[in-house]
Amino acid sequence: MTTTKKRLKRSEVPVEQTWDLRDLFTSEHDWEEALTTIQSTADQITPFKGKVTDNAATLTACLKQLEELQARIIRIATYANLKLSGDGSDPQNQANSAKTASVLATIGAKLSFIDSELLTLSQHTIDQYLQEEPQLKTYGKMLEDKLERKAYTLAPEIEEILAALSEVHDAPYMIYERSKSSDMAFAPIKDQNGNELPMSAALYEDRYEITADTDIRRNAYDSFIQTLNRYKNTYAATYATEVNKHVTMARLRGYGSATEMLLHEQQVTPDMYNNQLDIIQQELAPSMRRFVKLKQQDLGLMEMRFCDLKAPLDPSFNPKTTYEEATATIIEALQIMGPAYSDMIETAVRDRWIDRADNVGKATGAFCSSPYGTHPYILLTWTDMMRGTFLLAHELGHAGHFYLAHKEQSLVNTRPSTYFIEAPSTLNELLLGNHLLHKTDDKRMRRWVISQMLGTYYHNFITHLLEGEFQRRIYTLADAGTPITADVLCNQKKEAIVNFWGKDVTIDDGAGLTWMRQPHYYMGLYPYTYSAGLTVSTTVAQMIQQEGKPAVDRWLNVLKSGGTMKPLELIKQAGVDMENPDTIRSAVAYVGKLVDELEKSYA
Questions:
Q1: What distance in Å separates the CA atoms of residue 356 and residue 323, rounded to the nearest whole number?
Q2: For 245, how many CA atoms within 13 A lie in the half-sphere containing its CB?
Q3: Can you give the pTM of this predicted structure?
Q4: Taking residues 25-54, what's their average pLDDT?
Q5: Closest CA to 522 of 230, 79, 233, 174
Q6: Does 318 have pLDDT greater than 70?
Q7: Is 217 in a helix, a strand, or coil?
Q8: Cα angle vertex 226, ends 521, 11, to 5°?
Q9: What is the pLDDT of residue 2?
């Protein structure tokens, strides 16, 4: 029997597999100094209190100083967050994260007067000031957005108190992340020969869940669920606090519901939100049930269980790739985006913008952090599976988006609505898939690539969409006064999954615990936006295939626009109408065509 391979500590990881945070701060000492001095910098803005809106020149000066302060805050907070993500078990990283949160809460409360005073402006005054002061035009959309929030803003002294409590309001997410990275331990698993294998959340999500070995896949799932079950009551209380915070804030601010408040922040209508959830669930289910039937037959399974859904088709063909090969493939696939975009990817790989190690305490999953004034940083865990190439392309899509937006826009205009955020990332995945299909006539390779593309749709149109459906249910219950307990969360999660898969997949009670996997529930109504982004990117990918450079140029201009437009207007610049439900139906139909091709490959 082989021994369990020990996971490395952060200090044992080869440095080339980690990100280089010296582009943020050359040392932790420099970071500490910046954290100390940022408070006095904030004090330099307080003399504007009571005068912010006196005239166009004063308003412009205040907003410019605030923006400069925010850029420095972002750099400081990003450094602390990335250190914690690299090793959440390190007490120093935990302490620095808490210290940062405390300082930012203090600054937020100290400067909350700015928001309150901006909200006294009328449309007439804003228009007048924009004419008088050309530099103020940079802040035009931000001021318009403030006006839209005016009816839901509380008295200045209350807003100041709420700002002072930001650290408390952020506590549920912090507790969840801290516990997940530092406390959660998983029992080792065994393969069919009795060999013991290491188990972690990262290994489950990146390797075991998608392995062709049914014994390993199911044993890993059992280990994963056993640990989730031990934490369900604690995490339920944590998430219930997050939900009840939104319900309470919505009532205080005069919204009809928490959902209405969270959609208002995204500048998304209820129809746009409900269309994504309803149309995809209703119209995608038949195609995806065909897909899992095919998978069940190919794998020779007596029953298709929930834990088998991500198992590969044609399991004996499961290509591996090195990190170096993967990055070269991505660069080649995305050359269609132009030389500047390709240069960005090459620089990201060469200059260690990417943290790919697996170590104790590292955050699970993958993300891209894009601090203004420097470059994006990407976190993932590289496992030498070719599927990871799609994941890396996805995160590089986020990086490319904000790299371009930061170059073209001031800080205040860089970030669009979360409704759009996942479009650039998923487009990269589709372009990669199309590139790989174009390069090969090999039947099995084409089947594998289509399976990976369906994996992208599974992730965004099923996993995250059903998370969105789960959130819709939970917020509806919470708004009605239903206590949010572990049983409620597990039952609602399982019911959403069962409704989609019907009788074609055996859904065990453990599936109901999987609401505990994702941090996105602590980011407002984020999960459903993955499906909106993929709907956009599906349409744009087809345009690029049909038109070539004109469609690419439109898309690059959208990326460079950052947050200068509302999501509907921004997306229309790419030639996509998200108000039309047929746009969603067309994307769903494309998924059906991919399943059709898979079925033909087995005929």
A1: 9
A2: 20
A3: 0.87
A4: 96
A5: 174
A6: yes
A7: helix
A8: 75
A9: 41
